[in-house]
Design goal:
- By secondary structure, the chain is of the alpha+beta class.
- It has one domain.
- About 15% of the residues lie in helices and about 25% in strands.
- Strands 1, 2, 3, 4, 5, 6, 7 and 8 form an 8-stranded mixed β-sheet that branches.
- It is globular and about 60 Å long.
- The two termini are about 25 Å apart.
Length: about 250
């Protein structure tokens, strides 16, 4: 399966802080020396830099709802399988951003001292909120597996992938959950509608933006996410993932 996330388009916009220097007077030929320096790796994959924000990698594994018969001949059904998997990745990125981003109830635009129904922007302003967002076009497929379900005797498709996230340097400390054994990654749970998918071209922004598992009426799934400081070098940012060759194996379901 190749180029699984080639058309992955997210509505989310990543905020990121840039290093700046104060404007110098137009008649000055001198450039002020900064008071301190901080090294940036020469092979860094992009030109984003901030002394108050960092880039993180968030990895998860999801089941893709698909007709098991399509998995019998992956080559013949490659396009359908790709679209199904892509829609799961897209949905995860959207709901991840909904959880991580800051929210506000609304704006009192008519200045009457009350945020009225028409002025409400977020209906989930108490949900999550870690000053962070998933980065556009940063989905990276790691591995796919075809798993035999021992109960139903049918095949299932599972995908493992990651998203880049921009957020405060102390975000891992503020996220709920537990550190892994070597303290390099924070493991936390993300809830979203069970089996949810999203077309990159047609996104229900209002529904996703206002999602809150506490008030959601449908069935939920809990996804385990591993979050760590990103240290990858050389992968271009703000581009769709390159063509990937994935490892497809068959094993019994856990």
């Amino acid at each position: 399966m190749r180029n699984l996330s080639h058309h992955l388009i997210l509505w989310t916009c990543c905020f990121f802080l840039f290093a700046c220097q104060e404007d110098q007077p137009s008649n000055s030929s001198q450039v002020a020396e900064p008071s301190s320096y901080e090294g940036v790796l020469p092979a860094k994959a992009d030109n984003y830099y901030s002394n108050v924000a960092s880039e993180f990698e968030m990895t998860t594994k999801l089941k893709v709802e698909i007709d098991p018969s399509l998995l019998e001949d992956q080559n013949a059904n490659q396009e359908t399988i790709q679209l199904k998997a892509q829609s799961r990745m897209t949905a995860f990125g959207l709901y991840l951003t909904t959880y991580l981003t800051d929210k506000f109830r609304g704006i009192d635009s008519n200045n009457n001292g009350t945020i009225e129904e028409s002025e409400i922007f977020f209906r989930n302003d108490g949900y999550g909120g870690f000053h962070a967002m998933a980065r556009n076009y940063s989905a990276s497929l790691g591995k796919t597996e075809i798993v035999e379900n021992v109960d139903t005797k049918t095949k299932e498709l599972w995908i493992e992938f990651s998203f880049d996230v921009a957020g405060p340097k102390d975000m891992l400390d503020n996220l709920p959950g537990n550190w892994n054994e070597d303290q390099s990654a924070k493991i936390f749970d993300l809830q979203m509608p069970k089996g949810v998918t999203s077309s990159p071209e047609f996104i229900n922004r209002k529904e996703i933006r206002n999602f809150d598992p506490k008030s959601y009426q449908g069935e939920l799934e809990t996804v385990q996410v591993s979050a760590k400081l990103e240290k990858k070098i050389g992968r271009p940012a703000h581009t769709r993932s390159a063509a990937l060759t994935t490892s497809v194996t068959t094993r019994q379901a856990d």
